[in-house]
UniProtKB/TrEMBL annotation:
The keyword Membrane applies. Keywords: Membrane, Transmembrane, Transmembrane helix. The chain crosses the membrane at residues 51-79, 217-236, 242-260. PANTHER family: INTEGRAL MEMBRANE PROTEIN-RELATED, POSSIBLE CONSERVED ALANINE RICH MEMBRANE PROTEIN. This is Type II secretion system protein GspF domain-containing protein. It comes from the Bacteria. It comes from Nocardioides soli.
Length: 291
């Protein structure tokens, strides 16, 4: 009985370690500050914990295996985190598409306006939804006589995308040029953004295939194991012993670890920004920013 309790405790610690590692945290819990507690949504955390507990208890009762119940809790807690990579990459691609559409709109507006500061407000009405608020703040800043490089730097920080950084640098460098020169720069910039968009879409399609296959394999294995544990009890009877639960704990830990690894392989590659504030924009363009 002592070894069985030790096995359950080891499994619990292993599952907690896997969950903390998947969230990029240290295995040993650090001291949580008050500011960090405010960032987390307590209602969402409580709801997710309640669902995980209910599922874990149900699985434990159906299979009569404590390890299976603990594994179900781990899967329910981990699954939203594991499945989030697809949504993150899809949102990133949508942002690139919005930047490409807005750059083309700005190019058309620059052809009919006398300069960049006059062309920017003209793109506000038809701006993509993802850029509408940052662009409105940019136009309001220009109306308040904020220097153009400073307003563009704030716009890039609000969009928070590498593609927006490229556009902002190009606009800052060509802000004082004539409308014809500005149109040529924006045409080249829009074409480059479209090329990057097509490449990102292809990568997204390939990664979605990997995610879909990995999810199917993971759910298929869980379904087969669950059906055997409930309806084909004789096949898996050895797992009902203490040592059988120990073996099942090892298999469950390997399964969760491989699931986390498989999902991380499908995560999008990071695209770090190279602008952060007006000072970085001044360094990138080689100009002094007037405040």
């Amino acid at each position: 009985m002592t070894s069985f309790v030790a096995c359950i405790l080891a499994v619990c610690l292993g599952i907690i370690g896997v969950i903390r590692a998947s969230h990029g945290k240290n295995l040993l819990p650090a001291r949580v500050t008050t500011a960090r507690r405010k960032v987390a949504d307590p209602q969402q955390t409580a709801r997710q914990g309640t669902i995980a507990l209910i599922v874990g208890v149900a699985v434990g009762i159906l299979t009569r295996w404590p390890v299976a119940g603990l594994m179900a809790v781990a899967v329910v807690i981990l699954w939203p985190k594991l499945a989030r990579s697809g949504a993150v990459e899809k949102h990133s691609v949508a942002k690139i598409e919005a930047i490409a559409n807005w750059t083309e709109s700005l190019r058309d507006a620059a052809a009919s306006e006398s300069g960049l500061e006059q062309a920017l407000p003209a793109t506000l009405d038809g701006a993509p939804a993802l850029l509408r608020r940052p662009l409105r703040n940019l136009v309001n800043a220009l109306d308040l006589r904020t220097p153009l490089p400073v307003a563009l730097a704030h716009f890039a920080d609000e969009v928070d995308d590498r593609g927006a950084d490229k556009v902002v640098i190009a606009l800052s460098l060509t802000a004082q040029q004539r409308a014809g020169s500005l149109k040529r720069v924006l045409t080249t910039l829009a074409a480059n953004t479209r090329a990057e968009l097509e490449m990102r879409r292809k990568v997204l399609t390939e990664r979605n295939g990997v995610r879909r296959q990995s999810n199917q394999v993971a759910l298929g294995l869980l379904a087969v194991a669950g059906l055997q544990a409930v309806f084909l009890r004789g096949w898996v009877e050895p797992y009902s012993t203490v040592y059988g639960q120990m073996v099942l704990a090892v298999l469950a830990a390997v399964y969760v670890g491989l699931l986390v690894r498989l999902q991380r392989l499908a995560e999008p590659e990071p695209h770090p920004r190279f602008l952060s504030g007006a000072e970085a924009l001044a360094q990138a363009t080689g100009r002094e920013v007037a405040w």
